[in-house]
């Protein structure tokens, strides 16, 4: 079983090695590591680990936080494909798709940006509506989007009046970015968190901008 562990740890030599040893002590193998963000003296890392069958995931949290100044932001099952060029692969897939390019985008975005679901929404005469959604997108849709039109990538208030109650019940973190000047928006949902980091929002905006150019 694989898990995605998001940790905050001191940005100093030896911290990551100590964390790796602690995780190894409970039988966890590190499969990949992505630096999400670096700040003043700290780093936020996403670590994909594999644990033996039957092992309790809580042991990962206990092991990680046994290291001084290490905090676990979130832990959730991970079934994505491990690679180091996720954005480039998705851009290439969208560019080469003959039909339903937006569907290719929303199907690939959760894996690339490590979220639960993604949709593309637009504004029509009756207000906001879903253009396409990933297979994991909730069937319950937002009836309005008062934050549209959107000029730049941003984190959205998950407790806003426009947010469906089901999304709130699942503590869904939300972020969105405009797809160029089309008026359409790529909306991401991360049920149960963690919160979107500024670097993740910037990454979303970068990807959405390139995809908009590809779509023409």
TrEMBL record:
Family matches, as InterPro entries: ACT-like_dom_sf, ACT_dom
The organism of origin for this protein: Nocardia yunnanensis
Protein name: Amino acid-binding protein
Stored SUPFAM superfamilies: ACT-like
Residues of the ACT domain: 4-93
Taxonomy, superkingdom: Bacteria
């Amino acid at each position: 079983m694989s898990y995605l562990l998001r940790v905050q740890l001191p940005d100093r030599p030896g911290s990551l090695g100590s964390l790796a040893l602690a995780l190894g002590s409970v039988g966890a193998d590190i499969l990949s590591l992505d630096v999400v963000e670096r700040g003043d003296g700290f780093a936020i890392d996403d670590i994909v680990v594999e644990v033996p069958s039957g092992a309790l995931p809580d042991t990962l949290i206990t092991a990680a936080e046994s290291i001084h100044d290490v905090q676990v932001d979130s832990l959730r099952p991970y079934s994505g494909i491990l690679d180091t060029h996720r954005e480039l692969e998705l851009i290439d897939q969208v560019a080469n798709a003959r039909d339903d390019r937006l569907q290719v985008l929303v199907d690939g975005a959760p894996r690339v940006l490590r979220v639960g679901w993604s949709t593309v929404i637009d504004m029509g005469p009756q207000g906001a509506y879903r253009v396409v959604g990933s297979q994991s997108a909730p069937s319950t849709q937002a009836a309005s989007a008062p934050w549209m039109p959107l000029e730049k990538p941003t984190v959205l208030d998950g407790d806003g009046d426009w947010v469906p109650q089901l999304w709130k019940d699942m503590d869904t973190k939300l972020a969105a970015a405009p797809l160029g000047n089309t008026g359409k928006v790529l909306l991401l949902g991360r049920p149960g968190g963690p919160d979107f980091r500024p670097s993740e929002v910037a990454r979303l905006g970068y990807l959405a901008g390139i995809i908009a150019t590809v779509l023409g």
